[in-house]
Amino acid sequence: MPWHHRLDVLREILDDGAVPTFVAPDPEAAFAFVAGCRDGGARVVEFTNRGEFAYATFADLARRVSRELPDVILGAGTIIDAPTAALFIAAGASFIVGQSLSADVARLCNRRRIAYIPGAGSATEIAEAEELGCEIVKLFPAAAFDGPAFVRNFLAPSPASRIMPTNVLATEESTRAWFAAGAACVGVGGHLYPAELMRGGDRTAIAERTRTFLGWVQAARCA
User: Fold this and answer.
1) Active-site annotation, residues
2) Which of 45, 118, 172, 179 has the fewest Cβ atoms surrounding its Cβ within 10 A?
3) 0.70 exceeded by the pTM?
4) Mean pLDDT, the chain, whole residue set
5) Which of these CATH numbers, 3.20.20.70, 3.20.20.80, 3.10.20.30, 2.40.50.180, describes 6-222?
């Protein structure tokens, strides 16, 4: 797997403004998703560590992405401890995402020059993540908040922070609201890519949905 320095990864995430995330039933469906996202304009994609044999699926996927889609930056999400993070990094993950903050994972990623995006649900947790070197912090669970209002109010005294709401609603209105509030980027998953689409592995449909969503992101940033 091509190695991507964390600064390049962070820059690409912030430039794209969106990170598609997915759960795949097998390596073939996983590759169809990543390829579809790339066809639709996304260059950063997050594999979700969930379900049976998830690590094996990721390892197979990463090898194929390395051969056939070397410009794609592939990361691993739902990582809660350092041993699991180390496994996925060794298999080819160029960034690590968690639903919560782990100091051990932060130290590991810092040592390996891997971008780490932990989840946080309060101003204190965001600050703790930033103290550990996390440049982007995932707002999780975003559905538990009046999300855009939280982002707006948090950034007022902390304008240098970069917040990434995740699993946002895949609508133009919702996308516009997050970026108007100051979100640096968003993670989008099941709302844009339903389970039946993932099972079918429809690369063309995935590309169309990705292209549409990235268009909403661009429009929201220009508003």
Assistant:
1) 46, 138
2) 172
3) yes
4) 93
5) 3.20.20.70
